[in-house]
Design brief:
Chain lengths: 549, 296
Amino acid sequence: MNVQQSPLWTTQTSGARLTGTWRSALPDYRFTPSPCLAACPVNGRIAEWIGKIGKEDIRGAWETLIDNNPFPAIAGRICHHPCQSACNRQYHDETVSICALERYVGDAALAEGWRFNPPAEERGERIAVIGGGPAGLSAAYQLRRRGFQVTLFDAKPKLGGLLRYGIPDYRLDKNIVDGEIERIVDLGVEVRLNAEIADAAALKKLRDAYDAVYLATGATSSKKLPGLDYNAPWVVDSADFLAAANAGNPVATGERLVVIGGGSAAMDVARTARRLGKRVTVLSLEPEDKLPAQRVEVDEAIEEDVVFVCGAMMRAVRPAAGGLALDCARVEFTPGKKRGEFAITPLENATFTLEADAIIPSIGQNADVERWRGLLGVAGPVIGTDGVWRTSVAGIFAGGDVASMDRFVTQAVGMGKEAAVEIARFVMGETAGSGFDVGPTLPFLEINTHYYPKAARHVPATAAVGERLQGFGEVQERLAAEAALAEAQRCFSCGNCIFCDNCYFYCPDMAITKLEGGYEVKSDYCKGCGLCVEECPTGSVRMREDTQG
Amino acid sequence: MELISYQDEGQFVSGHVACGGCAEALAMRVILNTVGSDAIGVVSPSCSAVICGGYPMSAVKIPMFHTTLESAAASASGVKRALVAQNKPDTTVLCFAGDGGTYDIGLQALSSAAERNEDILYICFDNEGYMNTGGQKSSSTPLDAVTGSTPAGKTTRKKNLIEILAAHRIPYIATASPSHINDMRAKIEKAKAIRGTKVIIVLIPCLPGWGVADNAAVRTARKAVEAGVFPLLEIEDGVNYRLSVSEKGDSIESYLKEQKRYRHLDADHIARLQAETDFEWRRLQQRVADSPARNP
């Protein structure tokens, strides 16, 4: 029953009184990058796709993910996840399991057979991409999506580069690699396999034939340990060892292996060798808490009975009864300013001997920059590029391990994306960009943690150690659907509006209007109190000064 | 996160003259839209009377009867009986009063109406003082709080109106907070469906009166609930207690720090207030545990 308002009591509502004149500040809705986005090597819109998982829109989450990264299933398995180290939630309880969620979405896409949409328009410009590893594939994908004609050259019989030949199956199943690469090729990338671009002259020829060239040949030769005789039958190259094992054709070695190095590749070698039934010792210069490998890799290697001798170096190898004796010394390790730089001092009074049948030095990979001598400028151990991936030759761009010492897979994917953006600008005659900095991110203090009750992080299960050592099956499992949903709902969505309507409901002046996909402030009535800002869970509204004229 | 859900039907209108950031206006918005259009309001002199609007403007779509400070419940009783006489028994009669008009000056009328079990929904906006007249103390002002008339802090406790009301054995008593909008909405809906006297006390952190930042009324109210200073409860028939937020935090300090009226407190005072809060919380829990509905 509706009671009619009688004109006896009032002549009008208070709507005629414009209380907005009281105000000195006005709320302003704006997107602010989350710390995870800034930390992400591909600057993925993480809060946005996690929000979609939270609404059980997995397809939507995937569509957002693939804007920046065509490899969610791969990255979800092996990314070094700087996003999680940057996550604001760690200051509340624990970081969000972003990687596990990415894999959850990536695996769904492969299982459902989701494909990339063809480019909206075809363009005539032709781009050559050299190298079918993460950087080259990422660039090819991004260029093809923009409608360019892309030819991808790879020296190997199959695409994937490090993804295929460098990372063992127990971390990254090759069906996943095949699935995510196939989608890119199906976009209409012309692939030339077993097609090595041998030298500077060949590269120049390619440059002349195409509108632009992207060079992403990786770092394929193993760094050499000084003083070690690489011709000795008991020295095995780490890249060869991994490639052979990944191909199901392991290199024959003795029973006792010493792996020299403390990075991801050393962990891959050590753990692969354990799966081949070897007894493995890892010898690293770095102390255990400063190993360059991801912590989870070290922990899983320890679980798998890899013996770690950290903070020590090998000084000489000599034949000994039934094998080799490695004369070693403890060292004092001083990290340098940049990643990968350090100083060591051997401690003379702390020497010891290790016994082994073979040694696998695994101290990193070098890019082959000599091949392009006379054509491309060099910056230290890599091809020289400016802030937007241009080499010294106009129209030749470079990225990935050949042009950078940032050697994680997803960093290469990010470089490929950035280069694609710049290549597109170049071939269309536009001015080069000014870099890829995303600007200030949303600080933890702008999150209203009241809206996020403390909740334990969901971490994917891992296979039992005994089971792992039986073969090369994946160690990490996929999150279950309920766990993924709950984990997604832990995300603060820093700086990304989740349309929760708190600003609307907490306004005492009814000064906020809900619109399709956003909100509008009625400046006639907003008194500028800031309750909407204070009660916004995500930090998506801020007050700005408003002098009203 | 839990989303707020109610439909704003436009029952409360922009342009009212509450201070920017006022939690009382926020609570009125929830209450008026939940009660709906089939209602008549009675309001005694208070901030809510000012917010509802002086002639000729009204911020409220239902008719509001502005009555005297001591007689809100009595006036509401009369309005309700007139509606019944007109064969409109389903129209809600809603009473808005402050703590001055409830704990002090209107208590006699409220007690009488409660004793008669008049069918009214009585809302007390409790900002713990006569904040509309410049911030004097009321009998709702808590121990140690500074007001214009207690410059060194109040020396007596806040009157326990909830227990007074419970002693009347009215069908429904509840407390609500602008920080817990869904809870407030649910309590209004529940009260609306009950015949008889219903009283809901809503905590309103007063921005100038308590010395709270313009954007902090909701946060302060939330801290009052979380610290157990202002428990969110329901009492049915005066004996069945239930807590809507059944756990409290360890410390009231963060709540006190939001407000200038407690700025003079030293550690000993804070410890004493903490002990009072803990003691009251334990008593409340005991009442919940002893409720007949839980022990049939």
